[in-house]
Amino acid sequence: MLNLVYIAKSLGLTKVADYWEQVIIMNDHQKNRFASKIVSTLFNTVSGKKIAFLGWAFKKDTNDTRESAAIYVADQLIDEQAKVCVFDPKVKTQKIYEDLNYLDSRKEELNQEHLQVVSDPYEACKDAHAIAILTEWDEFKDYDWQRIYDQMKKPAFVFDGRRLLDRAQLENIGFKTYKIGHV
């Protein structure tokens, strides 16, 4: 989107550039709000707590991570000393670390200490305090959510940033659920 701002400004389209700048500001606000919601819901601290990320790509069916919300949410949670464990069906481990390191928020060694990438979604969720859905992969709907719940810390939280999962089904299992735009 920064490219759109640049192009609009270079063409003298100030109002168009201003519009796209506001979209960027709102997107940043949503990412900050998502991370803050996780922290506040987990009793105002995520220090030492495992947060499973399902998805890292910016959208399903791709390994493209440009401007993915997951990068920024992970960065904020790691600032709060969370242990983030990522599963994404297409994004490679090296790319995930590169994305986080690119922000230059902390030393690469600290990112490696606080962020783990796994190749199995059930492993990502095992012993997690919360799950954050950050990409709308269709396969996430088909997971054995009872199995996931059974192996998580309690209370078990799901933060569905993509409004992908069946909230009633998860709550019947025992999850405490939060969806963007829902109470």
Give the helix/strand layout.
Layout: H1 2-10, H2 14-41, E1 50-54, H3 69-79, E2 83-87, H4 93-102, H5 108-114, E3 115-117, H6 121-125, E4 130-133, H7 145-150, E5 157-160, H8 167-173, E6 176-179
Parallel strand pairs: 1-2, 1-4, 2-3, 4-5, 5-6
Helix pairs in contact: 1-2, 2-3
Average pLDDT reading: 95
- Beta fraction: 5-15%
Give the number of domains: 1
**Pattern of helices and strands:** HHEHEHHEHEHEHE
Contiguous helical run count: 8
Could you say which overall geometry the principal axes of the C-alpha atoms support? globular
- Which CATH top level class fits? Alpha Beta
Gyration radius over CA = 17 Å
CATH topology: Rossmann fold
Uncertain segments are: none
Structural summary, described in words:
Residues 52-167 form the UDP-glucose/GDP-mannose dehydrogenase C-terminal domain. It comes from Psychroflexus maritimus. It catalyses: UDP-alpha-D-glucose + 2 NAD(+) + H2O = UDP-alpha-D-glucuronate + 2 NADH + 3 H(+). InterPro entries: UDP-Glc/GDP-Man_DH_C, UDP-Glc/GDP-Man_DH_C_sf, UDPglc_DH_euk. One of its GO terms (biological process) is glycosaminoglycan biosynthetic process. The protein contains 8 helices and 6 strands; from the N terminus they run ααβαβααβαβαβαβ. The chain has helices spanning 2-10, 14-41, 69-79, 93-102, 108-114, 121-125, 145-150, 167-173, and strands at 50-54, 83-87, 115-117, 130-133, 157-160, 176-179. Helices cover 45% and strands 14% of the residues. Helix 1 runs antiparallel to helix 2 and helix 2 crosses helix 3 (69-79). It is globular and about 55 Å long. With 183 residues, the chain is α/β, with parallel strands linked by helices. Strands 3-2-1-4-5-6 form a 6-stranded parallel beta sheet, sandwiched between helices. It has one domain: 3-Layer(aba) Sandwich (Rossmann fold), CATH 3.40.50.720. The mean pLDDT is 95.
